[in-house]
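Reviewers of the previous submission asked for a worked example of the structure-prediction workflow described in the proposal, so we include one complete record here. The input consisted solely of the amino acid sequence. No template or homolog information was supplied to the procedure at any stage.
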Amino acid sequence: MSDITVVGLGAMGSALARTLIAAGRDVTVWNRSPEKMRPLVAAGAEGAATLGAAVSASPRTIVCIPDYQSTAGLFEQPDVGSALKGRTVIQLSTGTPREAAGGEAWFGAHGAAYLDGAILCWPGDIGTPKGLMLVAGPAAAFEASRADLQPLAGDLRYLGANIRAASTLDLAFLSRLTGIIFGSIHGAMVCEAEGVPVEAFTALLPAGDRSVPLTQTISAESFAHVSKGGATVDVAGSAVTRMRQQAKDAGINSELPDLLCNWVRRAQDAGYGSEETAAVIKALRSARDRGGRQEDR
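From that input alone, the workflow returned the following structure tokens.
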């Protein structure tokens, strides 16, 4: 039996698995696309033929796939559900607090302990002092998993038994970040409208600020290239959609995520979904050039 299984081998999942291997853990890996398993198997991991076999191989399983809906689709298969009893699942996918609570209930009904986590860093930060990971759930499950989680993040924070806590803070952090991103897009539009170079705006920003590469992208009109630390319009759309869903689930004001979803949708409708998030400005410019009000549809 291995120490831990990693399910989902995108950029982040692969970084988690490699870091665990380097830390001397016996790791089993599984991915829907088997070719993503091969480099990790070459590095020392054990590749599982099926998800059920992957879960059975270890007392703990880290799940790092795009969203909770994808997790549910995979784990609801009969052979997987039956392998969960007595094991711990550590969900590091992205979702809402309501989905985290649903995950705890579903995995609990199948006899598994459940921890819900959020990774607040880039794949390159995994295994370094910059790595930041939040984890919520039963204290006993966290303590039993600490030795596997600690190598992944120099800043590993246990938030207590409230299973909603990690996804809540992830969304709160995301709200701040999207405010910076979309506020900077509007700031660039202000400069363009008043004949002031966007480069002058960039020069005011602190070094390392997310708005620096974003506004540089706008200045250069290089939207096809995703800047370092950036994301595509489609990825930004997924993030602001989660923000809006949480607001609706909690019954709080949703005007900010509603607005951002509207902006992103316009960019997607214009065909900019695969471009850098800064490309949203092109859709907003179009509305300005037509002389019409930018109204919600």
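The domain at 167-289 is CATH 1.10.1040.10 (N-(1-d-carboxylethyl)-l-norvaline Dehydrogenase; domain 2). We consider this example representative of the routine output the project will generate in years two and three.
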